[in-house]
Design a protein that fits this description.
By secondary structure, the protein is mainly α. It has helices at 2-25, 33-64, 67-87, 158-172, 175-182, 188-194, 211-236, 243-275, 293-316, 323-345, 351-373, and strands spanning 107-108, 117-119, 135-137, 146-147, 199-200, 203-204. The radius of gyration is 24 Å and the shape is globular.
Amino acid sequence: GSFVGLALIAIGYGQAQTIQSVFVGNQFSASQKEAKKKSFSWYYLFCNVGSLGGEFGGPVLRQSVKFVYCIGAVGGSFIISAVVFIAGHRTYKRSDPRSQPTASSPTISTGSRTGVQEEVVDPDQEGKDPSSRETEVTPLLQPARYDSPTPPGTTPSWRQTIKEIRPLLGVFVPLIVFWALFFQQNSTWVLQGQEMNCFLGKLKVPPDAMPSFNDCLVILIIPLLDYIIYPHMENALGIVATPVRRIGAGMLCTLCSFALAGLLQLYISSADERRGNDDSTDCHGNVSLAWQVPQYILISFAEVLVAVTGLEFAYSQAPERLRNVVTSLWFLSQAFGTLLVAVLAELPIPIRWQYFVYTILMCILLIVYVVINRNFKYREGTVT
């Protein structure tokens, strides 16, 4: 029964996740570019509000009531959310999948070998009359951002589709390691917390409730970045926080968070050895759980910089007909990250050194990411 339940959750979660963010972006018109960008942040913020209820409420309820009531609370929350979603169905903008553009729509290209005239079209102008689009001449051998349209009514080949999404894979693939490290806040970081002193005064904080602190931070960090830090960087410093830069900064924050976790693990081990505490896995360790806060702050910044930006990036840089596909690839990188966690967990490395191995691995992938995407070409009109 448990495996059937997990399978149903996986099917439902996988189906919904790849559609929701695209659906959110489709609710905005071409004149609402800024609101569309912010919508992905607010979408992710509310996802974390729900996650906060589950990650904090679950451990608390488990300590005071039967586990079955925890499951019931989750099921009841889902029913309420489904009712609210259905109640607003008349206000949603919905598009017929059969009306999605075909190969006649402008697409991402790796380059052009001719000096002929090619279309450069704002993504928000897709689907308009071709005669109303602006064109420009692409010089000989100069890389172009978009291919000229193929004959109307034709279906793009799989080679053409791969050509369109190939530049995006240079962003998605290195992030597999990021997700592998990120999800360890629910595993190795919890185990680390069990070796620490979980009592703040007389209040006991369950180590498996610490990830809820991450949710709280994410809820605060999203508006901080969107409305204060990003505008200040652009207006005062002249630095545009492009999606590729934001994701790279998130990977750097992840690297630093695991370096801190590694240093903390060394301190925990040395403190236990000095005081002869051989049973430090019962939340009565010699180091306060509060020392995990800095690494949670860094991983929370990393989550916002990578996850929120990734949703916007997958939507804005994908051709209109491939937005669901590209978003699916984005979430597929998360799935591969969770599988990599299982592989990393089997490494025969002492726990005190594992965090530094992960830090070095993240450092290598960050360098690869920067090299691959240092000259990333954005779709016309999507990044100013």
